[in-house]
Design brief:
The protein is of the alpha/beta class. It has one domain (2-224): Alpha-Beta Barrel (TIM Barrel). Helix content is 41%, strand content 17%. It is built from nine helices and eight strands. It has an eight-stranded parallel sheet. Strand 3 (72-75), helix 4 (84-88) and strand 4 form a beta-alpha-beta unit. Helix 6 packs across helix 7 (167-187).
């Protein structure tokens, strides 16, 4: 795994350099869906401290094995209302906030907490019906709402890129998220001034995502190899 992490970091740094950016501005997230806690623990011990989990139940099962290790956990899969309390016990950021309803429900549970919950607005920039996320047209208003709610801190936007062999079309889906981010940052809306992150790009297309401005890339197979059957 050490070799895979080193190679992934080299890919990130090379892509950033080619885009005129610093590799230090792009975080490597481990997409740990279906990976055993032992593998995640090993990766953290090797220095990969940002973990992405798709399922709240899986996140909760792994948590006891990761106690004491320096790491942050982002939820990168859908969040059901009945799983909010469980998620809040383990998560540092929810990247998949895609509706007004979920925004209000999260705010209700975090408003009295001493530290705001980091969240990102998930946007479906590819237009594929199989992808989650709000419509790009709705994203600025949703971001403004999130920024106004107590208990939540909007730190950016997330998308899953277009599933296509057409690199230009994939790049366009990522550029669309960057344009939305820039629009929201320029709006001056209260609570949106920290929404700079762009979580986008995976093992197969991280170079395109970084070219478009990704600050977080979510890598699974590039680190762990083929995903086990869930």
């Amino acid at each position: 795994m050490a070799g895979a992490l080193k190679l992934a970091r080299a890919r990130i740094d090379k892509a950033a350099a080619e885009a005129g950016r610093s590799g230090a501005d792009v975080q490597l997230m481990l997409a740990a869906k279906t990976q055993p806690a032992a593998a995640v623990r090993q990766a953290i011990e090797l220095g990969a401290t940002l973990i992405g989990e798709n399922r709240v139940q899986e996140m909760a099962l792994k948590a006891p094995d990761l106690v004491g290790l320096p790491h942050r956990v982002h939820l990168i899969g859908p969040l059901q209302s009945n799983k909010i309390n469980a998620a809040l016990r383990h998560v540092d950021c929810i990247e998949t906030l895609a509706s007004v309803s979920l925004a209000h429900k999260l705010a209700q549970r975090t408003a009295d907490q001493p530290t705001a919950l980091d969240v990102m607005v998930q946007v479906n920039t590819s237009g594929e019906t199989t992808k989650a996320g709000c419509d790009p047209v709705e994203a600025p208003d949703l971001a403004a709402l999130v920024g106004s709610l107590p208990g939540l801190r909007l730190i950016g936007f997330m998308t899953v890129g277009l599933n296509s062999p057409d690199a230009g079309a994939v790049l366009a889906s990522y550029l669309a998220l960057r344009e939305l981010r820039d629009q929201v940052l320029a709006s001056g809306q209260a609570g949106t001034d920290e929404a700079s992150h762009l979580s986008m790009g995976m093992s197969g297309d991280l170079e395109l995502a970084i070219k478009a401005g990704a600050t977080i890339v979510r890598l699974g197979t590039a680190i762990f190899g083929p995903r086990p059957i869930a």
